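Quick note —
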Amino acid sequence: MRLTRGVVACLVLFLAGTTLLFGQEQTASIQGAAIDASGAALPGVTVDAVSNKGQRFSVATDRSGHYIFPAIPSGVYTVTGTLSGMQNAVVKGVNVTLGSSPRVDLKLGMAAVTASVTVTAEAPLVDITSSAAATSIRSETIEKLPHGRDFASVVVQAASANQNNKTGGISIDGASGAENRYIMDGVDTTNPQTGVQGKVLVTDFVEEVQVKSAGYAAEYGGATGGVINVVTKTGTNGFKGSVSTSYNKNSWNGQNAYLSGQDTIRGPILQLNLAGNGFEQFTPRRDNTKTLEPGFTLGGPIMQDRLWFYAGYEPWIQSTKRTITFVPSQGGVTNTYDQSFRRNNYIGSLSGNVSSKLLYRAAYNNSGYTTGNLLPGVTGRANPKVSLYAPDDRFENWTASGYADYVASPEWFFSGRGGRFYRNYSQSGISNAPRIIFTQGS
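Predicted structure written out below.
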């Protein structure tokens, strides 16, 4: 009796947790019915859904002729219905976005010879399965659009979104950047301190970006702006990969702009002079900054139609030299300081299905960085001692997630979700010498 109660309690907790996490969509669904020429329901029809990336799923219609794929990856699908003695029904170009559930009905006619009826699907004007106002941008579209290295550059392609640094980043429907929620592979990656984007993700690793501006479910209750949902790429039945590299020097970006080590454009600086009786203007020397971004991606099958992998590595490697001439009160010396920066962007995922009954996926992506040596300010009023700029920065930033969806029957569907978002900043090599700061009051 105690064992039975324990099992029931665990099952209740599992289902409760599933309910809470299921709204953070990583998949979609397709549903519909199979009928004959007279409109009568056809039970036992085999329905296959094949994505444009080669992923195949199969179910059979129930006694009332209905079928459902409750959890499949987003993409463009071809849906086929087959039954012995009947014409095959084929519907092509079924556009399935994150969280959507398009209805695809199949009409099979009598066939004296082998034949099939092919239909091209049309996107409905209104999605009656959801009240959310959402825009989905998939990798096929992203590749054709101008975009930056981070996925946030794609978000602004949604009609309701724009980049507004004064409001903390991405503004959706006029809300500030701190009012959004950022979901990555089902994990909330919103910065817990500031409420803005808390995770970098290379655009080449993105499968789909979904921007919800209104009407989203209660699972996103922490958002009063928008919800930005990102799903990373997965492997397919065909091996696909890429090799790329990018190199840049700030001297290539024009002669009138001053670029710091983090590529922030500055002009002449106006500041109070040391005597405190006026302002002085000067133009600092330009940093010598070099950036290298090599990378590769590879995805493909481990087992055809059953298990796929995807991996990618695209680091951002940057070196900066800053030359400062310090003011006479600091000795009037000229020193050059070096800084190294490296962001390790990499990703890995495994996904698969078992007889179309069990769909599962595990994913990990990292965007942590290390910085070697700090740089003094460009004003020349800092202490010229090299030892004060020796500390190294280390920022750990990654997500890990997984899910499993099991279709026991058309009436019973079980789902489990889990994940972790980790960020931690540390600094080493800090001098233990006393630091004294003087301030001037009025």
